[in-house]
Amino acid sequence: MDNITQNLQGVPLNHYIWLSAIIFSIGVIGVLTRRNAIVIFMSVELMLNAVNLLLAAFSVHNNDPSGQVFVFFIMVLAAAEVAVGLSIIVMIYRNTQSTDINVLNRLKW
Amino acid sequence: MEQLLILLIFLPLAGALVTAFTGNAAKYVALVSGLLSLAVGLIITAQFVPDASTQFEVNVPWIADLGIHFHAGIDGISLITILLTNVLIPIIILAAFKHEYPKPQSFFALILFMQAGLLIVFTALDAFLFYIGWEAALIPIYFICAIWGGKDRIKVNMKFFVYTIAGSLFMLLGIIYLYLQNPADNFEIQAFYQLNLDAEQQGWIFWAFFIAFAIKMPVFPFHTWQPDTYTEAPAAGTMLLSGIMLKMGVYGVIRWLLPIAPLGLNDWGSTVMVLSVIGVVYASLIAFTQRNAKRLVAYSSIAHVGIIAAGIFALNAQGMQGAIFQMLSHGINVVGLFFVLDIIFSRMKTNTIAELGGIAKTAPKLAIAFLIIVLGSVALPGTNGFVGEFLLLTGIYQYNIWAVVFAGLSVIFGAVYMFRMYQQIMLGETNTLTAGFRDIQGSEQLVLVIICVLVIALGVYPKPFLHLSEASVQQLLEQVNQKLTSVK
Amino acid sequence: MINLVWLVPLIPLLGFVINGLGRNTLSKSLIGFIGSGVIFISFLISVSIFLALGNDPVKSHEIFLFDWISAGTLQVPLSFLVDPLSSIMLLIITGIGFLIHIYSIGYMHDDAGFGKFFSYLNLFIFFMLLLVLGSNYLVMFIGWEGVGLCSYLLIGFWYTNSSYATAAKKAFVMNRIGDLGFLIAIFMIFTTFGSIEYAKVFPQVAELMPGDSTLALIALLLFIAACGKSAQIPLFTWLPDAMAGPTPVSALIHAATMVTAGIYMIARSHILFDLAPVVQHLIAIIGLATAVLGALVALTQTDIKKVLAYSTVSQLGYMFLGLGVGAYTGSFFHVITHAFFKALLFLCAGSVIHAMHHEQDMRHMGGLRKKLPVTFATMLIGTIAIAGLPPFSGFFSKDEILAHVYEHNQFMWGIAVFTAFLTAFYMFRMLFLTFYGTYRGTHHAEEKIHESPSSMTIPLIILAVLSAVGGIIGIPEVLGGHHWLAGWLSPVIPAHGSALSHVTEYMLMAVSVVGVIVAIAYAFVKYVKQSDLPVADQGKRSALANLSYHKFYIDEVYDLLVRRPLDALSRFFYKVVDTKIVDGIVNGLGWSTSEASKGIRLLQSGNIGFYIFMMVAGIISLLLYTYLSL
């Protein structure tokens, strides 16, 4: 086990940070630019996973398992969120025959 | 002893609760409650020792974590305002007897609820409690005006409510600031008195409190909500507003503003003085050409309050005593005036001066009562108005002779507009509208007799009332002057 | 006895309360009895106080009743001062007051407001007594404003006539202008001397130097107050209008008592005025101007009461002239004699008006001598007295003032004596127009003319006697008397003899007597021999007569200069400043808030992409901010 940890620690932390930053940005841009609710949803997952990756990386780097505990929490949360979110999207689809979020602009003024 | 104070504050609340569930007998229940409160007030007066101490003190922790206490007590200054409240409330209830208001139980319950709020304001020794009372008194009057008022009531009332709430907000900020500055972490008035704030801090505190009080009184130029509200409110609402509620502002200045921020007064006193005096002349002049009698009296009230404010800020024994006495007499007189106008309105359906005339011929009793009240409000010697106004003007004179020259113009102007109104409403020949005017009777007569007796009795022998507040005023002035001199 | 002085005002007050409460239930005769009875009791007490004071070596008694107002160092007790000055005023007020009450029983007999009238009169006497009895300025001020109130009530007694009600209001307001002066004077006295008690103020005043500016200001303010109450320029226009009241009121309030309150007040505080020579000079000038103006206007008036009213204004001017030149005793003497003869003249006029069934225009009178013999005889005495022929009372008092004026300034004396001639002329003009010649009314009205009942004629006779012989109390040394009044008042007002030689005094008297006789003769020729009638209202007059007839248009000028600008200012303040500016700012705050929210709410577009974009932009800017500020 120590070996694996040491091997993992051999990868510089900067790489992890850059990678997750890139994934996170992809997620953000996806959320900002796409109009399909499901794609936005996937982009959100992407952002969450970018954070997970970072948490895991730091956890290993610092020899502190509590970061990985957080990852599990986030995964559970994401699963729950997907369940609720998807059901909302399904309901929207049933009502509007579309998953385009620009249709949902009633909540204003 | 302290049970009396608890009784004083909670009796109106209990009365309000009972009244709310009594249906058509509400007015009698309310009157009984009002009279009981009056009795409590009189017992307190009888047991009160006229020195500077705070008596009947109640102090129980309320929200202990924040250092908030239910802390109330009575000294000479509060006693006068308590008497004013408890004398006027039964009179106002009685004055509403002839009206057929829809939902009378809510109407009278609200009056009693307001009384409780007012009494809290006048007895609170904890800033938080004071603020609670301050706002609690506003809510019932909002509903009284909004439900039973004239046809423009919603709009006018909105303005009144937002305006006064906005003012209170500044005061709340001031209170919170003082709380944060207070090392003892509580809202005790004595602790606030002891705070060592520098002149700039006190200047801010001064304005934060002054704006709240100035809107309530109202002092020029914060007065514009008042004429509309007085005109649109139902008679009882107008009486509550003008008779008691505006004294909250005056009382607040004396109890909170002066002792907490004397340095602010040092810097801004002359500004406030000028505003008050401008208000006196300005409002008197405007009253000259008013067509609606209620509006005329509303403006006259602004003028009177201007003198009261000026007297307080003159910061001497005469001005302060005059202000306190004038609170009492102005309350009585203005309630009387509005009551007379209400009698006329309920019979003639108009308060437009030009449409009336000659009422003295058909209603001689009303004419006499109206005249006595008018004389009181133009401060004829021998009436209550004179004692207050004389002391106030004496106080203002010692501050500045020009201030008294301008404030004193109200002596002339008051006579002009009041007698003009009296002449046009009561004297001359009757017209088709006023020919069938019925003279006062029953409860109307009773109310007017009480008011007229008070007008004259307080004017002829004011000493007991002046005596009640004298020691407290002396102490307050010493306290303020001490703070002022210690800085210099 | 002197300690019972509080009874003197209290009893009329009781009369007021009884008559006021019983005005509709008591019978007229009972009301009349109570109304005059209380005054008579007061009169009796006053007489005994007067006698007691005469025998008492101490000439000044303070009677403390109770503490009235106190705050800080200001202590105002309700207390009375009995001294020679106030005791003699008590006699005048209750004595003449009593006669006028009796007269009123007859005069007001048919009036519906009989009870109300008597209660008001009683109240007036109460306040007037308070005014003269007060031992400090504030008690005087109670009476001062109280008599103003009664004046208001009684001028507007027939309130259904709106012009009467207006006259009442005018009187009150003009008095109030003076009252403000009084109030400020009281404040100044209190701050300067620490008290407003006469007994504490006057000794301190006496130590000050003449010409002290504070003192001058106090004196000026007190004089303004006196101008209001005693109808001097510029505050005199209310007095002629005050004739709207019933005639006994004009006699009591607007001739004999209330209007002389200003003179009483100045005489009372003469120490103050002595040390303010500038103000004294002003008083003399104003007094003289008022005397002339009043006389000029009286020359052409046709309403019998208006003539008397302007004559009162003129005579009050005389008294002020006397005060101005330091002849306090002389002025006070004139107050007394004037109270006698002017009350008499008004009551006679009332008797004429009563007989003529409320006709007041002299152009419709004439030839009443035979029909009203008692009225005629008494009025003749009153007219001679006011014209100032010896040995009638007016001669002595007027002459005393004139002699002092001569001493002071001979030019002023010239004007004053000329005014005396005018007085003689217009008074006899009035007498001749009323009682001589032929009757000028309708025949129908002529038959109803009758002499007044005895309740009215007896007071006339008593007052006529007093007018005739009242001068006895002040016969100067030059005529062999020893001026009892000056001696009596000397504890209050130090007497100072005339510096004039006897020859000069004789000469002055001769000038005024001859002039007066000439003026009377001219009036006789003009109005009896030539029967020269005043023209009708629309008729043509010479420019000067027109000016006089229209009272120099002073009311109109005041209206233009004061009332209208104030009303315009009032409208401007209300419609522009209050509604548009002050309230505009308040409403503007509300308006701008709601407008701003109308604009800002558009950001809430409902576009989720936009929301998310804003959120991300917000987070990025926050991060940037923390990054940069590190």
UniProtKB/TrEMBL annotation, chain A:
One of its GO terms (biological process) is ATP synthesis coupled electron transport. Keywords: Cell membrane, Membrane, NAD, Quinone, Translocase, Transmembrane, Transmembrane helix, Transport. InterPro entries: NADH_UbQ_OxRdtase_chain4L/K (IPR001133), NUOK/Mnh_C1-like (IPR039428). Coiled coil: none annotated. It is found in: Cell membrane; Membrane. The chain crosses the membrane at residues 15-32, 39-58, 70-93. GO terms for molecular function: NADH dehydrogenase (quinone) (non-electrogenic) activity; quinone binding. It is an enzyme of class 7 (translocase). It comes from the Bacteria. It catalyses: a quinone + NADH + 5 H(+)(in) = a quinol + NAD(+) + 4 H(+)(out). GO terms for cellular component: NADH dehydrogenase complex; plasma membrane. Its EC number is 7.1.1.-. It is a multi-pass membrane protein. NDH-1 is composed of 14 different subunits. Subunits NuoA, H, J, K, L, M, N constitute the membrane sector of the complex. NDH-1 shuttles electrons from NADH, via FMN and iron-sulfur (Fe-S) centers, to quinones in the respiratory chain. The immediate electron acceptor for the enzyme in this species is believed to be a menaquinone. Couples the redox reaction to proton translocation (for every two electrons transferred, four hydrogen ions are translocated across the cytoplasmic membrane), and thus conserves the redox energy in a proton gradient. NDH-1 shuttles electrons from NADH, via FMN and iron-sulfur (Fe-S) centers, to quinones in the respiratory chain. The immediate electron acceptor for the enzyme in this species is believed to be ubiquinone. Couples the redox reaction to proton translocation (for every two electrons transferred, four hydrogen ions are translocated across the cytoplasmic membrane), and thus conserves the redox energy in a proton gradient. NCBIfam families: PRK05715.1-2 (NF004320), PRK05715.1-3 (NF004321), PRK05715.1-5 (NF004323). Belongs to the complex I subunit 4L family. PANTHER family: NADH DEHYDROGENASE SUBUNIT 4L-RELATED, NADH-UBIQUINONE OXIDOREDUCTASE SUBUNIT ND4L. The gene is nuoK.
From TrEMBL, chain B:
GO terms for biological process: ATP synthesis coupled electron transport; electron transport coupled proton transport. Keywords: Membrane, Transmembrane, Transmembrane helix. Residues 125-409 form the NADH:quinone oxidoreductase/Mrp antiporter transmembrane domain. InterPro entries: NADH_Q_OxRdtase_chainM/4, NADH_UbQ_OxRdtase, ND/Mrp_TM. One of its GO terms (cellular component) is endomembrane system. Pfam families: Proton_antipo_M (PF00361). The keyword Transmembrane helix applies. The chain crosses the membrane at residues 76-95, 107-125, 131-148, 160-180, 204-223, 235-258, 270-289, 296-317, 323-345, 366-387, 399-419, 446-462. PANTHER family: NADH-UBIQUINONE OXIDOREDUCTASE CHAIN 4. This is NADH dehydrogenase. It comes from Pedobacter antarcticus 4BY.
UniProtKB/TrEMBL annotation, chain C:
Residues 136-423 form the NADH:quinone oxidoreductase/Mrp antiporter transmembrane domain. Keywords: Membrane, Transmembrane, Transmembrane helix, Ubiquinone. GO terms for biological process: ATP synthesis coupled electron transport; electron transport coupled proton transport. It is found in: Endomembrane system; Membrane. It is a multi-pass membrane protein. GO terms for cellular component: endomembrane system; membrane. Residues 68-118 form the NADH-Ubiquinone oxidoreductase (complex I) chain 5 N-terminal domain. GO terms for molecular function: NADH dehydrogenase (ubiquinone) activity; NADH dehydrogenase activity. It holds the Pfam family Proton_antipo_N. The keyword Transmembrane applies. The chain crosses the membrane at residues 30-53, 88-105, 117-135, 141-159, 180-196, 216-239, 251-273, 279-300, 307-326, 332-353, 374-392, 412-436, 457-475, 506-525, 608-628. Its main location: membrane. PANTHER family: NADH-UBIQUINONE OXIDOREDUCTASE CHAIN 5. This is NADH:ubiquinone oxidoreductase subunit L.
